[in-house]
């Protein structure tokens, strides 16, 4: 190769680096380390709420309360600023199924109403800095277990609410609000009565190597939802659930600088942005994702009820196997109408493979502001279906996808 073309390549390399630098978590995130332990607790077999909460409240900054092994039963817990919870391998923290313990005051928790805001979460962090949840143990929300004082489960309540077009008052499993530098590492989250893990208006949110498992019939059991949150890394996670595997939302503040790296989904609604895009979602890198048997693969959902700009989103090295809609970019989600303007621009999908003959949907609302998407090295299956309106698609797809998705390591084989 001549010197000239070498320097040309070097220039491209530099440009590529500069070019992609903003569309990701701005922090340099590496694999988290488990903090030193302040106290180790043993299960009592009874209600351990007070013991765990007391240990968390007196744990020194930067240290973790360890649950050693066996089953711990608890009602709602708050992780204070600076403290962490370590659920060790072999330990399970089980959430109480008594709606009264979660009630926010109106006796709504465990009932159906118009709002669905009557319960506090199982685990809360609020205004915390440097807190986290660590360990190879399990946190079980027990959505499948009858509520105390009722003959139905949280999940059954959700199903009943859907039947009457209302909302269930069920607790979320982990809710992080207005916090900084929060880490969730290795833990298995299962059977949440509602969303599993939500970070709301938080700056610095690292989720690494966690597993989420809930069945397809667990309604609203979203896996990981960053909402109005910035500097997010979600890496090496394995998610199976009944709703969005990951949903990036911007309900009350913008969400930006998000990296979603080397994850695997099996079951669920897919890799979602929205539908709460109100304050805008931008600068997102989704790289290395394998998806097996979900409703959607890459999914952006918004409408004129929400509005908001979704832009600077890069998807790369993605393999989707057997999704109803391997790619769905939709500005008319559920046909809900309001007075806001949604826009989906500057979406890049590169090194993408879809196996199975699903439907590729691009539904923009406005011919003068079409959905803008660029395709590079996109391979789909012969027999796939298309539904396209008000979309400007640059690049093309090849109907030659074959082989399989590798579900570990390099997703595209
Ligand atoms: C995101 O991370 C970068 C790099 O650490 C930092 O400069 C910036 O302030 C962070 N943004 C927010 C909103 O915390
Ligand atoms: C991240 O690493 C790069 C390369 O080493 C460095 O230039 C940059 O300043 C680092 N950013 C932060 C926020 O530490
Ligand atoms: C629960 O109890 C109510 C009334 O007490 C009854 O109508 C309903 O069928 C029961 N549901 C189940 C799942 O047993
Ligand atoms: C935490 O954020 C959620 C939205 O994700 C909100 O519904 C809830 O009220 C907030 N909790 C508190 C205590 O502010
Ligand atoms: C994901 O978790 C499931 C259990 O839910 C397990 O069977 C599967 O091997 C895991 N996959 C990867 C890639 O870790
Ligand atoms: C994909 O999911 C199907 C069932 O949904 C399962 O039979 C198959 O083994 C999965 N493939 C891989 C590679 O995990
Ligand atoms: C489009 O988004 C990419 C990152 O995904 C960014 O590097 C690029 O500058 C953006 N282009 C425009 C025109 O905003
Ligand atoms: C999109 O990326 C471009 C180039 O980095 C940047 O100028 C622009 O502000 C970004 N848009 C948003 C909404 O962040
Ligand atoms: C359609 O897009 C154009 C160009 O961005 C904008 O001026 C117009 O207001 C949009 N129309 C609607 C109904 O949002
Ligand atoms: C789609 O795939 C299914 C299962 O692989 C097959 O039965 C069906 O004939 C295919 N449909 C089309 C239109 O290719």
From TrEMBL:
Gene3D superfamilies: Single-stranded right-handed beta-helix, Pectin lyase-like
GO biological process: carbohydrate metabolic process
Superkingdom in the source lineage: Eukaryota
Pfam families reported for this sequence: Glyco_hydro_28
Keywords, sorted A to Z: Glycosidase, Hydrolase, Signal
InterPro entries assigned to the protein according to its UniProt record, in alphabetical order: GH28_Enzymes (IPR051801), Glyco_hydro_28 (IPR000743), PbH1 (IPR006626), Pectin_lyas_fold (IPR012334), Pectin_lyase_fold/virulence (IPR011050)
SUPFAM superfamilies the record matches: Pectin lyase-like (SSF51126)
GO MF term (any one): polygalacturonase activity
Cleavable signal peptide: 1-23
Family of this protein: Belongs to the glycosyl hydrolase 28 family.
Protein name: Glycoside hydrolase family 28
Native source species: Ramulus artemis
């Amino acid at each position: 190769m001549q010197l000239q073309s070498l320097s040309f390549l070097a220039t491209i390399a530099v440009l590529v680096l500069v070019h992609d630098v903003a569309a990701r978590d701005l922090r340099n995130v590496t694999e988290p380390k488990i903090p030193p332990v302040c106290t180790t607790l043993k299960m009592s077999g009874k209600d351990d709420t007070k013991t765990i909460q007391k240990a968390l409240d007196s744990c020194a900054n930067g240290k973790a309360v360890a649950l050693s092994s066996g089953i711990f039963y608890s009602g709602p817990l708050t992780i204070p600023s600076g403290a962490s919870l370590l659920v060790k391998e072999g330990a399970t923290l089980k959430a109480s199924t008594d709606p009264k313990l979660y009630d926010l005051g109106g006796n709504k928790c465990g009932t159906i109403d118009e709002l669905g805001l009557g319960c506090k979460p199982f685990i809360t962090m609020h205004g915390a800095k440097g807190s986290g949840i660590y360990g190879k143990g399990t946190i079980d929300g027990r959505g499948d277990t009858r509520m105390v004082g009722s003959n139905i489960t949280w999940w059954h309540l959700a199903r009943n609410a859907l039947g009457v077009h209302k909302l269930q008052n069920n607790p979320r499993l982990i809710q992080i609000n207005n916090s900084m530098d929060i880490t969730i590492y290795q833990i298995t989250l299962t059977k949440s009565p509602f969303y599993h893990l939500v970070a709301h208006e938080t700056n610095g949110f690292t989720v690494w190597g966690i597993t989420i498992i809930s069945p397809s019939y667990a309604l609203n059991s979203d896996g990981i939802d960053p909402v109005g949150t910035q500097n997010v890394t979600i890496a090496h996670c394995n998610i199976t659930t009944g709703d969005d595997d990951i949903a990036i939302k911007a309900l009350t503040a913008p969400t930006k600088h998000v990296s979603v790296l080397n994850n695997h989904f099996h079951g669920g609604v897919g890799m979602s942005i929205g539908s709460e895009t109100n304050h805008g979602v931008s600068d997102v890198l989704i790289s290395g994702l394998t998806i097996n048997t979900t409703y959607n693969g890459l999914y952006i959902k918004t409408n004129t009820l929400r509005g908001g700009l979704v832009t600077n989103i890069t998807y790369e090295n993605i393999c989707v196997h057997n999704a109803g809609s391997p790619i769905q970019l939709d500005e008319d989600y559920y046909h809900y109408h309001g007075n806001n303007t949604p826009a989906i621009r500057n979406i890049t999908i590169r090194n993408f493979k879809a196996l199975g003959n699903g439907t590729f949907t691009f539904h923009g609302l406005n011919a003068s502001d079409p959905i803008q998407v660029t395709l590079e090295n996109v391979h789909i299956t012969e027999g796939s279906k298309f539904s396209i309106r008000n979309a400007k698609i640059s690049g093309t797809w090849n109907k030659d996808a074959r082989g399989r998705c590798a579900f570990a390591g390099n997703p595209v084989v």
